[in-house]
TrEMBL record, chains A, B:
Pfam families: AMP-binding (PF00501), AMP-binding_C (PF13193)
UniProt keyword terms in alphabetical order: Fatty acid metabolism, Ligase, Lipid metabolism
Annotated protein name in UniProt: Long-chain-fatty-acid--CoA ligase
Organism name: Salinibacillus xinjiangensis
Residue ranges constituting the AMP-dependent synthetase/ligase domain according to the UniProt record: 27-397
Transmembrane segments: none
GO-annotated biological processes: fatty acid metabolic process
């Protein structure tokens, strides 16, 4: 068989040739831009030629601080296709961390949306590797800026070559992109994506049994393009010639609903928070929206509340697909679809299966292990999820923490899961959050989910606190809804019938707010400290 | 990213673990066998362990002379997963050619369906590389045979290890299978399939925009498993956990209709002849069949008559998907699907597009070239189709003819095609059959298709005959339906409005029969000789 050829320039070329008139709909701060893959290809080739003229060479890292829009999409293909590396920077990290990752990756050029110009200006003296700054803006004039040299993306394109050919000798195992994990503790860790990994991942998510992305789809990634490649959707959609809708900066739930309605979006992807917002807009917003074009909502990042999925599906007829992955896995690992022989189950049983993380997609392997080896597939025994396969990272970029996470050819995800007799995985906890009580494990996520299903509870986080006899015991921190009340005893009475006795928290503590990270995840280390203080008092 | 791992043992393992109860329905000479992927996996591991005990080593070729049934499926995985090479032998080749390819591949073991025992016995002295013969049969007792040593597959399985582990160090580029082309002239040519090629091909055919093979499908490959891996369907179906229906030996159209009806087949694949037979059974057979489970009929191998597609779709509501490929391409290259913006075209226009060969699937590249370079995408200019990509052969196995077919990294398909503005390919002719008249090309297939659409014409073949002035001129050989008449003049009058004047055949010659190859293709070289004699008289 012929070798090689799983490279991103091939994906772009297919879209240019076969789908020149299929549209990319891009929302920027100045409105909506529309063009076809022919024009997208020409602009992509222009930016590649310009970067080459700026001295960018094979293997150089190019950082992007950008929203989901057409220019970012051009960077997605223009940078890797010329042999350089697309470094998507998570703009929600702290300025210190952003400076750290730009330095760590040694970015040579930064592509910056004008919204992030102040951010980059503030750290400009800390990022000496950057030789050129390119501003992503519709404005004709460049603003006054401390960055030097600062170019306008559009003015550079004017000088670019729309017929630029990708002749760089790229091996499919060469790096195409990189992304740093958003750390809850410590410094961000860099993950490098190869051309091969991205290509295979694009195939995998487009399988009929995965997200089934097709030419006939109108794909709207709401998950940011700076977060695990927007789950690979822009790559797959381009390859297959789907229409793309890129929702741009600072969108609201109302705006997303409007885009779905107006552009006839068929598939969209994002974290549960986004869909909670959309649901609220549908239920209480002023406008009526037509959501009937939607055939699938991909939901991942964290576990989606069952009640939300039920409401979307029964009230609005919008099918949810729960998925699991992480920055290290490009990201798709599992996807929750019923098996055909489960079609006859009761609706609630089906929903219970589909609210789990699902089973592994073709091309990857998973196993669930604890101290004694692989756990039984009984849906009860907990173990850490290990993953391997051709779109799984094999290391962190220049990082000593590689040896902790990558062992014997497997990625240790740090997620504690159960696996049932159908091979369906359910996240029970993060390794570091799990409560180890008397040699047994207690899932904080299970306790939190049940607590948060209580009418009076707005948020709940459970952490393990040291215990002289049992090693650790769970304690729950609870934030109540405004204008509601619930006593400690009421909550204990509510929990009791739902858990084994030894799973029940030793205490429930009411708080004003639970500390969170920049991306909205519970900051359990900090909570543990706070509770520690409180419990000792 | 992690490397490697695109190997067939991974596919099998996924089916065993995730789909243990999904069924394989296999028809053999003694009836229908049903089992799940758990049992299929155990039997597959048994046969691997047995072959190892028989001395089979990594890289050894194992030949199969077998129908589409469960034992052949076990060989599909059991042989490559242990590092050996599955050589599927086309049992419709002449005994001389079968002996040639067994020798050329140096098959070490042969798996033989009892139907082909006499065939192998007849050539036994000509195939010295074969050390063991294994009989695929349900019979308890082995028949008397000249083959030595001859084993019973089922008795060997009894001794095999159902937990045999695939620990052989296999690289994804290692050979997994091989298949020889059915030659119309000269000796058969061997094509070697790698683990990687088969895996990527399995992904490609399962994409939503290709055949969309899914766990929920009931897949019935009618195309033989000795012919380009039954178009890859057994590999993909196993990987994805689809139900499989394997129709076994000597099936009739009535039997296929019954299997579709009884087993609720959702997707099937085969050559146009098969579907012509099925159509006749549906129209004139004694029984009524329920075909409503079918969501797709994959049709390839040669061009499907438009009238047949129309009848299947309008009368029986059975959607056809036209595809193109060859032994050298694993085989899928193009697949005929409408683009979403073509949905509003008139039914006849859509059918006209879908009766072409379609556009290239993701992962491959095609180009169409003539003497002056790439042809325009205008649907008129003819050129040879070139293909490249990770599931395209890069050579013929130990064969000097490699240098003719593989040039500059491309496979020259030998097919003359047009490509239209949408990138849709239409086969005009085989290179060697094309008529070159006065520097211009005439498609014999176009002439034949129009002739065969005439009510009185049963078969028509057009060949080029030497001409002193024009180099070559087309001559048509026509076989009329029994009990019908048509004069030469009538046929000329019928052709005239449909072609440019210089495309019209110089003569139309009525015949009793057109010479054909073992697989039912016109043997144009022989026809050319016959006509040559007739024209000189």
């Amino acid at each position: 068989m012929m070798e090689g050829s799983l490279t991103l320039d091939k994906m772009l070329e297919r879209a240019e040739k076969l789908f020149p008139i299929k549209q990319i709909v891009s929302r920027t701060s100045s409105g909506i831009t529309r063009y076809g893959y022919k024009e997208m290809g020409e602009r992509t080739r222009r930016i590649s030629s310009v970067l080459k003229n700026l001295g960018v060479k094979k293997g150089d890292k190019i950082g992007t601080l950008a929203w989901n829009d057409h220019r970012h999409l051009e960077a997605y293909f223009g940078i890797p296709s010329m042999g350089a590396v697309l470094h998507t920077i998570n703009i929600r990290l702290s300025p210190q961390h952003i400076a750290y990752i730009i330095n760590h990756a040694e970015d040579k050029v930064l592509l910056i949306d004008s919204d992030f110009l102040p951010l980059v200006e503030a750290i400009k003296d800390e990022i000496p590797s950057v030789q050129s700054f390119i501003l992503l803006t519709d404005d004709e004039e460049l603003p006054d800026s401390k960055l030097e040299p600062l170019y306008s993306y559009e003015r550079l394109l004017d000088q670019g070559d729309p017929t630029f050919e990708y002749t760089e000798d790229i091996d499919e195992n060469d790096p195409a992109g990189m992304c740093y994990t958003s750390a809850t503790t410590g410094l961000p860790k860099g993950v490098v994506y190869s051309h091969r990994g991205i290509t295979l991942h694009s195939m995998a998510i487009s399988l009929a049994d995965a997200a089934a992305i097709s030419e006939s789809d109108v794909c709207m990634p709401v998950v940011p393009m700076f977060h695990a490649n927007a789950w690979g959707m822009p790559f797959a959609s381009t390859w297959l010639g789907s229409t793309q809708v890129l929702p741009g900066p600072k969108f609201t739930p109302a705006l997303l609903a409007e885009l779905i309605d107006q552009e006839n979006v068929t598939i969209t992807a994002g974290v549960p928070t986004i869909w909670l917002g959309l649901l609220k807009e549908l239920e209480t917003g002023e406008k009526e929206y037509d959501m009937s074009s939607l055939r699938a909502v991909l939901c991942g990042g964290s576990a989606a509340p069952l009640g939300m999925i039920r409401k979307f599906e029964t009230k609005y007829n919008i099918p949810f697909i729960h998925a699991y992955g992480m920055t290290e896995t490009t990201p798709l690992v599992t996807l929750s679809r019923l098996k055909s022989y489960q079609d006859d189950l009761a609706e609630d049983d089906k929903l219970a299966i589909r609210s789990k993380q699902g089973y592994v997609v073709p091309g990857l392997e998973t196993k669930v292990v604890n101290d004694t080896g692989e756990v039984e597939w009984n849906g009860e025994d907990m173990g850490e999820l290990l993953v391997r396969g051709p779109w799984i990272a094999d290391s962190y970029y220049n990082d000593e923490r590689t040896k902790d996470a990558f062992q014997d050819g497997w990625l240790k995800t740090g997620d504690i899961v159960t696996i049932d007799s159908e091979g369906v995985i359910k996240i029970a906890d993060r390794t570091k959050d799990l409560v180890k009580s008397g040699g047994e494990w207690i899932s904080t996520i299970d306790l939190e989910n049940v607590l948060m299903a209580h009418d009076a509870v707005f948020e709940a986080a459970v952490v393990g606190v040291p215990h002289p006899e049992w090693q650790e015991r769970p304690v729950a921190a609870v934030v109540l809804h405004p204008n509601t009340t619930a006593t400690k005893q009421e909550l204990f009475d509510y929990l009791k019938p739902q858990f084994a006795k030894w799973w029940l928290p030793d205490d429930i503590i009411f708080m004003e707010e639970i500390p969170k990270t920049s991306v909205g995840k519970f900051m359990k280390a900090k909570l543990r400290e706070q509770l520690h203080d409180q419990l000792e008092v």
